[in-house]
Structure formats: structure tokens, C-alpha cells
């Protein structure tokens, strides 16, 4: 596993469709935590190499209320000698829109360490992006963005507010996101609803999507990523599959707590 960015990117799939929830109707609440297992494929062998966790909590800054979204990714200790990963993400968002005001990506992947921060200037439709790393190279960028631009973490929670009952099969939904200090426009494709069954997690009523990724060091590019989310009020991802530049990855639901609604999509 080369880095937690794989896991985050895998979740970036729903984006920028019409929001059908008010704040009080969000499908999550402060205190929610969801964890996943990451597997990597060598030939015909799938091996569990790490895990990821996401959480949400309330935050007050200068007498203003925000939500603080966090994500962690790490390899298991048995894999640290091969390629050690300790990644952390944080996004501070407006509770009424989930649009970010601040984003942090703090990365340790093998011998590489760096931090990327975004400061969103909403009135000017700008993002001040900064990157510092152990290579001694320091980047500062000012990026022009659209009003509906999210970061890698806030888009996960925003996506869960979407109403899939109003999407048609094979309908494309555009995305707008800050990715590696660049403004990117992508899309996901709504495939439909089905019963997802796997012996590791059980059986669920699920929503299936395909995701367009851009060619990069990590991804081959194209509509190759597939994700299944719960077909209930929680809309949490349960299973993700994607080829990467070398091999493939799978992400499966491990545990959850403090969900806002019962996980009614689970069938066994």
C-alpha cells in the first residue's frame, strides 16, 4: 500500500449533485466513527495490509460553530518494514453546507514526509495551498476554484447527503475538488441498486457507482473504480474495488459506532 491517498481517493465518488438534506437531516452526527480494512493484490493473492478510520465531531473557532472531519490511514505493523504508512487528514467545514474552510494532509509514506494545507477564501473563490516536505522543497500556490469545491475529506461527508432516488441509471454527476494543489473536475456514474454479498462483511442492500479517476502515479485513469454504499439513511461505503498503477486495492467495512440511523440495509 503506497499511501492513504488511495483510500481517500477511493471514497471521492459522489460529489456536487443537489443536496436534499438540511443540516438537521444529515445522515451522520458528531461522534460517528467508521473503520475499514485495506487489501492489496499480488497476482491471485489478496492480503490485508492496513486500515483506515473516519470520524466527525463539533468544533468552535472564534465563537463560530464548525464540524471537524478527520481521517487516519496506516499499514499494519507487520508491513511497516516493507512500506510504512502513517497518514492523517483533517477538514474544518461549515455545518450548514459542509464546504471546507481549512484542510490538512499530513503524510508519512516510506521515507517521504510532507504536509499540504488548503485555506479556502470563499468570497474570492480562491484556495491558498501550501506544501512542506522533508525534501526541502516548499510550494505555495494560489488556485482559482468554483464555489462548490471540496477537499478530499469534506467531499466524503458531503457525498453522503445526496439523494440517489432521484438519479437515473448510468447518469453522470460532476465533481469539483482540490487534489494535490490542483483544481480538478471529475464525475461519478450511478449504476443502480443491487444486493451486495461478500463472506467478509455479509449481505447488504447497496447502491453501486463507478468513478472516473485521472491518470497519475497511483491510478491508470478512466472509469475503473467501483464502490458500493448502504442503501439506507446512513449512506456509508461498505466495499470499494479499484486497479492502481501496480496491482489492485479493495476496501471493506470493518466496524462502525454512533451511526445516526439503524443500518437497515444489512440483511444478515
Written account of the structure:
By secondary structure, the chain is mostly beta strands. It has a domain at 4-185. Helix content is 7%, strand content 54%. The chain is built from 3 helices and 14 strands. A 14-stranded antiparallel β-sheet has the order 8-7-6-5-4-3-2-1-14-13-12-11-10-9. The relative contact order is 0.19.
* Secondary structure: number of strands: 14
Shape: globular
Portion of residues in beta strands equals: over 45%
SSE order = HEEEHEEEEEHEEEEEE
- Biggest sheet details: 14 strands, antiparallel
Instruction: Find the structural class using helix and strand composition.
Output: mainly beta
Helix content: under 10%
What integer value in Å does the Rg equal? 18 Å
End-to-end CA span: 31 Å
Q: What's the rounded overall pLDDT mean? A: 85
Strand order of the largest sheet: 8-7-6-5-4-3-2-1-14-13-12-11-10-9
Identify the notable features of this structure and list them briefly.
268 residues, 14-stranded antiparallel beta sheet, mainly beta, single chain
Amino acid at each position: 500500500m503506497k499511501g492513504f491517498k488511495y483510500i481517500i481517493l477511493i471514497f471521492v465518488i459522489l460529489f456536487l449533485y443537489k443536496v436534499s438534506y438540511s443540516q438537521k437531516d444529515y445522515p451522520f452526527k458528531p461522534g460517528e466513527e467508521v473503520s475499514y480494512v485495506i487489501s492489496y493484490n499480488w497476482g491471485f493473492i489478496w492480503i490485508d495490509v492496513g486500515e483506515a478510520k473516519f470520524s466527525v465531531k463539533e468544533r468552535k473557532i472564534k465563537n463560530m460553530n464548525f464540524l471537524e472531519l478527520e481521517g487516519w490511514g496506516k499499514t499494519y505493523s507487520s508491513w511497516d518494514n516493507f512500506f510504512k504508512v502513517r497518514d492523517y487528514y483533517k477538514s474544518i467545514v461549515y455545518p450548514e453546507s459542509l464546504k471546507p474552510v481549512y484542510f490538512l494532509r499530513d503524510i508519512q509514506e516510506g521515507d517521504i514526509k510532507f504536509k499540504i494545507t488548503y485555506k479556502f477564501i470563499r468570497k474570492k473563490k480562491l484556495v491558498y495551498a501550501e506544501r512542506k516536505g522533508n525534501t526541502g522543497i516548499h510550494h505555495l500556490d494560489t488556485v482559482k476554484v468554483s464555489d462548490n469545491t471540496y477537499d478530499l475529506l469534506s467531499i466524503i461527508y458531503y457525498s453522503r447527503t445526496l439523494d440517489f432516488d432521484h438519479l437515473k441509471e448510468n447518469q453522470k454527476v460532476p465533481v469539483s475538488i482540490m487534489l494535490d494543489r490542483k483544481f480538478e473536475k471529475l464525475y461519478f456514474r450511478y449504476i443502480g441498486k443491487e444486493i451486495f454479498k461478500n463472506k467478509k462483511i455479509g449481505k447488504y442492500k447497496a447502491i453501486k457507482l463507478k468513478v472516473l479517476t485521472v491518470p497519475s502515479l497511483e491510478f491508470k485513469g478512466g472509469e475503473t473504480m467501483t464502490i458500493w454504499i448502504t442503501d439506507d439513511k446512513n449512506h456509508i461505503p461498505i466495499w470499494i474495488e479499484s486497479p492502481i498503477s501496480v496491482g489492485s486495492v479493495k476496501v471493506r467495512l470493518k466496524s462502525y459506532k454512533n451511526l445516526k440511523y439503524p443500518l437497515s440495509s444489512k440483511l444478515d
